[in-house]
Amino acid sequence: MTATNAAIWFATDGYDPVKKGINGRRVAGESFLRGFFAHGEVDEYVSFAHSRSDHAAFADLARASGVTAPLRGVRLDTPMALRPVDVVHYPAPISSTELWRRAPEGAAAWALCGITHTTATRNVMQCLFDLRSAPQMPWDAVICTSKAVQASVRRLMELAEAHLSQRFSGAILPARPLLPVIPLGVDCAAFQPDAASGSALRDRIGAGPGDLVAVSIARLTPDEKFDPLPLFLAMEEAAATWRAEGGGKLHLVLCGQFSEPLWQEVFATAAARLMPSCGYRLLDGADPAERRATLSGGDVFVFPIDNLQETFGLAPVEAMAAGLPVIVSDWDGMKDTVTPDVGFRIPTELPRTGVSSYVSHRYLGGTDSYLQYLSQLSAMTPIDVAALARALATLARDPALRARMGAAARDRARRLYDWSAVIPQMQALWGEQAAMLAHARAKGGPALAPREPGLIPVGPAVEEMFAAYPTAFAAPDRRLAATGTSGRASAAETFELRNYVARRRLLEDPARIETILAAYAATGPGGATEAEIAAATRLPTAMIARASLWLLKYHFLQQVPG
Question: Which residue of 96, 158, 232, 345 sits 20 to 30 Å from the alpha carbon of 61, by its own alpha carbon?
């Protein structure tokens, strides 16, 4: 099972929405890990991380998820310890940093597997460009969570390749990474509705048996999720239609958190003005009980996304798992997840060619922030209000249709989007990557050769990039002798005075520095070379060289003339 395993590149920012803040990327990351722990068929779970605290957090999540298999932590600066695991799963599109991390070990040392979340940020767009100019290989992969995202990633790569080919006179670029479509998953069992909780919510908002309760769970920000005003307009229009037919009252329940206090007033004021005949209630999206009540008490889930920040739409899948019919915008991943048997997709538009280019350029150049960029484009993204109103009215008047769609939604979520169905797809991809690696290693060739670490172009060794800076470079065969230290601070005290601990990066352990200084002092005025001190102390020569430079810097050593 090693061939279908992947080490998890782990940092709490990608997997802990409780500590780091709720957003789609972290919620999806945490859900993936729990899904992997529950359904992964592996011999061990491997974390690949910067720090002990990250390894510990990974282990805590694993044990809390019931993992009994072995856990192994590998530091990012000792990557060959990943073996026998051949794939690293990265929680975002592959960073060029990770490709350069691999380069000194050879391009076939391991394969990288990234995943898309939002692709609208300048950083992600730059990342995908850099991917094509960094040492990316055909066995690397970027999972696209929807066909729409796959198309946008391909287009970004086409534009990058066109530029690089023109810039470098028809240069032939290596093959792109694999770009499979694998959806985000959910734990369907966690979204089973609770009748008592749902009934209590309906009582709380004053919804009668004949009323329709439309619900949504989302970040409540027009900048990054959806503008609520078109939904309010559609709610009022649907309410008028249903009322004319003798129907009940429409209610809208939004469960989420406001990114900024100003949006709470905007939502409330607009709701009162644009849908005065409808009920309106806000619930705290940070409270799991409120999220459960929302999905348990609703009749229909609404998710009218009009924002480029969205790429998949995890909330509608969760609603489907809870057995709710869904009304979503015809947008990104929801084109894949929401079919006519489970709900309605409402038509959307984007500006035609040339109309919005200035917005992209202002964002690229730093004039506009990411939120300003998203907000301006959202303002030019219509969603068909009339169609949204018709969908609401249709489901309001037809409880049997709601029941059929809800049942179909639950079945579709279980079949296609439960982690038990998604994790095997990811493991199959990792197995494909491992097989490509094995073939490449067997074939060999210069493209697989390890890169000289000091010649990495985005971070070369100091002596390569800064050769013109110093008077000279430290010669390995020079002789160094201890200076007189009586009456001055010791090496250990000097180390402490400088307070290197403040940066949490020590050039060397102070006790070893004292040992090395004592070894030099024992050689007398004739001194010794670094190699001679290494032999005397049985410490690595590179360690002796680094400590010797520090001792020279603070005049505990001096070079012996000649």
Answer: 96
Is the separation of the CB atoms in 140 and 178 below 8 Å? yes
In the predicted model, is pLDDT for residue 133 greater than 70? Answer: yes
Across the chain, mean pLDDT equals 93
216: part of which helix (H) or strand (E)?
strand 212-217
Distance from the first to the final alpha carbon of the chain: 62
413-471 pLDDT per residue, tens: 999 999 999 999 999 999 999 999 999 999 988 888 999 988 988 889 888 898 999 99
Buried b (16+ CB within 10 A) or exposed e, 332-364: bbbbbbbeeebbbbbebeeeeeeebeebeeebe
Tens-place pLDDT, residues 229-259: 999 999 999 999 999 999 999 999 999 999 8
Quick check: 286 and 259 in contact, CB under 8 A?
A: no
250: three-class secondary structure by DSSP: strand
Angstrom distance (rounded) from CA 25 to CA 511? 44
DSSP state of 278: S
**Sign of torsion over alpha carbons 174, 154, 99, 106:** negative
307-360 per-position pLDDT tens digit: 999 999 999 999 999 999 999 999 999 999 999 999 999 999 999 888 999 899
Using the structure block, give the residue that is written with the tokens 């500590």.
19
E strands of 265-369, at which residues?
A: 279-284, 300-303, 326-329, 343-346
CB environment 184-206: b (16+ within 10 A), e (fewer): bbbbbeebebbeebbeebbeebe
Half-sphere CA count of 69, side-chain side, radius 13 A: 15
Predicted TM-score (pTM) of this structure: 0.90
Helix axes 314-321, 399-412, angle to 10 degrees: 110
Q: Going along 87-136, which residue ranges are E strands?
A: 87-89, 111-115
pLDDT reported for residue 17: 61
The CATH class given to the 188-348+383-417 domain equals alpha beta
Write the DSSP assignment of 295-319 as a string of letters. HHH-SEEEE----TT-SS-HHHHHH
Beta bridge partners of 302: 327
